[in-house]
Give the backbone structure.
Amino acid sequence: MSYAHLLLTKESGYAVVQFNRPEVLNAINIQLMTELVDALEMLDKDDEVRCIVLTGNEKAFAAGADIKEMADASAMEMLQRDQFARWDRIRKIKKPIIAAVSGFALGGGCELMMTCDIVIASESAKIGQPEINLGVIPGAGGTQRLTRAVGKAKAMEMVLTGRMIGAQEALQCGLINKVVPVEYYLQEAKDLAKEIAGKSPVAVKIAKESILKAFDTTIEGGLEFERKNFYLLFSSEDQKEGMKAFVEKRKAEWKGR
């Protein structure tokens, strides 16, 4: 399937979704988000794809929202547009999403990065929520996911000043997983996707679901959810194959069911 603002390629066991608006540093507009949700939901249903890499280019993962689309909008127009409903659909993607980030990841770009499950960044990455400089605040999860990732103090600093942080600072405060040279960031994300794609697909999906549940419940509720999912996996063919392969000292052959 072809898209106006995305490039989509499928590799062995995983797919790469790349933003393709280089003339505006991959600024996020409604059409791009519509295409992104469509692509992610399609890949989520594709049995050949077990992990997804989301990326931009060396200059920018995504340098924020397309301000021209909203500069003159009224509050009622923004409410009726309900543009963040698309973001809620990304939260429901069951397969792991790895963000491969280089250059700018600002505003909506930072928020998209934070919806991903793992983040590999190049040394040139510049991450931030600069909405305060436009007289607004983050609206796609920036005040919530950022606070959960880096804590109240750092989130306050970043959101209230609009200051960008570099890759090493983002790594130190737990916002990203790994920093690599620019020439390797995408390959590093692909290698990680390939590694995850080699695990049991059903266990990977349930593991992701269980980890994300930790943000929505108490420790008691989270532990109960985890245990039920643990028991549930004993009804899968992958559990039987995985444990049998371990005992027989061979590589497991996953079925994804």
Remarks:
- The mean pLDDT is 94.
- The beta strands are 6-10, 14-19, 51-55, 60-62, 97-101, 104-106, 118-122, 126-128, 165-166, 178-180.
